Amino acid sequence: MNIPVNLYYTNDHEWVKVEGSTGLVGITDFAQHQLGDIVFVDVDSVGETIAEGETFGTIEAVKTVSDLFMPVDCEVVEFNEALDGEPELVNKDPYGAGWIVKIKIADPSKLSQLLTAEQYKVLVEA
Fold first, then answer.
1. DSSP label of 121
2. How many CA atoms lie within 13 A of 119 on its CB side?
3. pLDDT for res 1
4. Which fold does the domain 8-108 belong to in CATH?
5. End-to-end CA distance of the chain
6. Can you tell me the distance from the alpha carbon of 58 to that of 41, in angstroms, rounded to the nearest whole number?
7. Cβ contacts of residue 62 below 8 Å, gap of 6+?
8. In 3D, which of 94, 83, 101 has the Cα closest to residue 40?
9. Positions of the chain with pLDDT lower than 70, given as ranges
């Protein structure tokens, strides 16, 4: 299982890659594997301010639909439009081409409350 060390993680299996005051958010390799073949990603929160832990969209796999939870307080500034035509990018490349939203992070100091790669590894191996 792939758990990049340069990302922050949540107990709900989302990740954040920080790029200055913005970040990319997606679901982890573990999460996409548990969901199975992803057929649709629905995000209607672009332009909205979302609080940590709030739902910002859903991800639909062949057998289930799961909510997507925001890791930090932020403004959603962009949806990965490539997922409209190729939702399976989340399965193929969850930490790269399969990112879900770009965000403007409200308070970067809150990132320290998220899990490190080591902590996330312990969570998924438990």
1. H
2. 13
3. 81
4. OB fold (Dihydrolipoamide Acetyltransferase, E2P) (2.40.50)
5. 14
6. 6
7. 36, 37, 39
8. 83
9. none
Contact of 89 with 59, CB cutoff 8 Å: no
The two structure tokens encoding residue 34: 């548990």
* Eight-class DSSP state of 3: -
Residue with tokens 């299996």: 13
C-alpha to C-alpha distance for 61 and 35, rounded to whole angstroms: 6
Give residue limits of the domains in the chain.
Answer: 8-108
At 49 the pLDDT is 97
DSSP 16-72: EEEETTEEEEEE-HHHHHHH-SEEEEE---TT-EE-TT-EEEEEEESS-EEEEE-SS
Entry pTM = 0.95
Distance CA 31, CA 107 (A): 26
34 vs 38: CA distance, rounded Å: 10
* Residue pointed to by tokens 């792939």: 2
pLDDT value at position 88? Answer: 96
